[in-house]
User: What shape does this take?
Amino acid sequence: MNNKRMRKLSVWMTAICLLSLCCNDLFAQTADADTTIYPVAEETPRFPACEKLDTTIEFKNQCAQQQLLAFMNRNIFYPLEARQNGNEGTVVLSFVVEKDGGISNPKILRDIGGGCGVEALRIVQLMIDGELKWVPGKIKGKPVRTLFNLPVRFKLTEAPPFALIGRDTVWTTFDEPLSFEGGDEALTKFLGEQMDYPASGNDSCLIGVVDLQLLIDRQANVRILNITDYNDLGFEFWNEAVEVATSSSGKWKPAVYQGNKVPSAYEVSMSFVPESAGCKAKVEEYSKAVLLVNEGSDLFNKGEKDAGIAKMSEGIALFPRDANFLAVRGQAYMEMNKFPEACADLSLVKSLASVDWYDSLLPVICR
Assistant: This one.
């Protein structure tokens, strides 16, 4: 073979080698650039707690599942609403374990209500905020983006018969519940007769609701635990609501637990409606808004979720800064996993009514 032919062959061999290297690199880049989310991987993702063990993958998977369960149990709280409503069962979450072990796109697939779904989601958010790195799923030995479903079990256990609200011990379990003398109708009548609409509100036709959480002690005295103004009515309205509520002292039958009278809580809502003739149109419009939001809530609870949201939104359009209306729709959005919409509504509720109910939820739903 002459030198020219050998040089030509050498050039071809070099070109083939370069092409091979280039293709190998291209294939590697293609694999690395794979953004597919795989529902199943040959090697499933696992919680990063057992990787130092010198054992089989199967044993590491079992160990990781146990450690994940322990992590959830250490950090999760049973929501009070769920306890009070008797909600128990399994919440199912899903999230993506990325190639680097990070977690993204957490969602609630199945909820049992009472705030359990959001509480479970909060624990996943703890992993994200703490930049916890899982062992990623693998296919043919290469890390891939993998979908991971996480069931979270909520099981009611016997809770103490009381709760601490600030410095007050408030019984939540009783043999005989707290009641107003004459019943709920008598209470509604009493509050209506005692309440006077502040005259200053007639100038701007202020209308809305103030909620009070009352503590009724063993002697039937009434104190205020909390006050929520959904419509920014102001101090004069708060003061009127407090005076009316506390004037009911002595008219209650305290709760009884194991033969003893115990302090317990009761929530009342007071509606303030302007009395001026010039406010008649606004009162009618507000009544229409209340009706629409209530109709929407009923539809939603019957399973007609989109129709329910639409009806609520009609009412909210009439009074877009009513925190009570917004709270109803925000919680409905949350049940639908529409977290951006829930975030917008509940963030506005917090701003308007100065409530702290959603403080633990907003970081989760406002990602």
